[in-house]
Design brief:
It is globular and about 50 Å long. The protein has one domain: Spore Coat Polysaccharide Biosynthesis Protein SpsA, Chain A (Alpha-Beta Complex), CATH 3.90.550. It is 43% helix and 16% strand. By secondary structure, the chain is an alpha/beta fold. A 7-stranded mixed β-sheet has the order 3-2-1-4-6-5-7, sandwiched between helices. α3 links the parallel β2 and β3. α4 crosses α8, α8 packs across α9 and α9 packs parallel to α10. 38% of the residues are buried. It is built from 10 helices and 7 strands.
């Protein structure tokens, strides 16, 4: 894959992001992409926001070329990433968070790995700068449980910074959408099992997955609850195992 002719799709899920948009995170993304020498597009998926995010995104796309907005009903972050990835037109699909805890510039580390033969490249947060103690405890517990329940060998499955060759992204996300169809929900949804599930399916399909350290800084706008997210994480790990045992994944 020639980096000079690479076509990149950047997918960003958005749910009530008025604070992050006011911080200028999307301008940072645009500034990075405009400076690239290869073709690109940004697909922002509004997850049924209720704070005016949708209109702010439409206004942004109106004055920034190659930004495309998709308006979903509220279905959660996982549904937003899946929607954006399946709508993307690039050779490489990369998703990143609106808060830019891992800045988009870290793509410079991930993208060359595709020329070396990787099908999926995931960011790994080393040190977790500024993260509360409970976040670090939760991360260590999840490493153990992921290895025990799903035999995943990765240090960090939950970093919201992952890139895929387009065929791998389309196949994995199509399988996930088929196994549990997207549907509207109420209330916030972090979907802690989403990243684990996509990596589990990717390994089962035989894709070459590479994990690289990336910069990550804790953001105060993160929506994290220690007890709730711990319980949801364990439940969704078990759900992935159950779906695998019952052949819910049509590999």
């Amino acid at each position: 894959m020639d980096m000079k002719t690479l076509w990149l799709t950047v997918v960003i899920p958005a749910y009530n992001e008025k604070v992050n948009l006011a911080r200028g995170t999307l301008e940072l993304v645009a500034g990075y992409l405009v400076a690239r020498k290869y073709p690109w597009e940004a697909v922002i998926v509004d997850d049924g926001s209720t704070d005016g995010t949708g209109q702010l995104l439409d206004d942004f796309a109106g004055i920034h070329q190659n930004f495309r907005i998709i308006h979903n009903p509220h279905m959660g972050k996982a549904a937003s990433v899946i929607t954006g990835a399946l709508a993307g037109k690039g050779e490489i699909i990369l998703f990143t968070d609106m808060d830019q805890a891992t800045p988009i510039s870290e793509a410079d580390k991930l993208l060359p790995e595709f020329a070396a033969g990787s099908d999926i490249v995931i960011g790994s947060r080393s040190g977790r700068e500024g993260a509360p103690f409970f976040r670090k405890v939760l991360a260590l517990g999840m490493v153990f449980l992921r290895a025990l329940i799903l035999r995943l060998p990765f240090n960090d499955t939950q970093c919201g910074f992952k890139a895929f060759k387009a065929p791998a992204a389309r196949r994995i996300f199509s399988i996930m959408r088929s196994a549990h169809p997207l549907k509207p929900i109420s209330g916030p949804a972090v979907n802690p099992g989403f990243d684990v599930e996509l990596l589990y399916i990717g390994r089962k399909l035989g894709y070459r997955i590479n994990e690289l350290p990336v910069v990550w800084r804790h953001q105060k706008t993160e929506r994290v609850s220690f007890i709730k997210d711990s319980m949801n994480g364990i439940r969704e790990l078990l759900l992935v195992r159950w779906r695998a045992l019952t052949n819910a994944y049509k590999l």
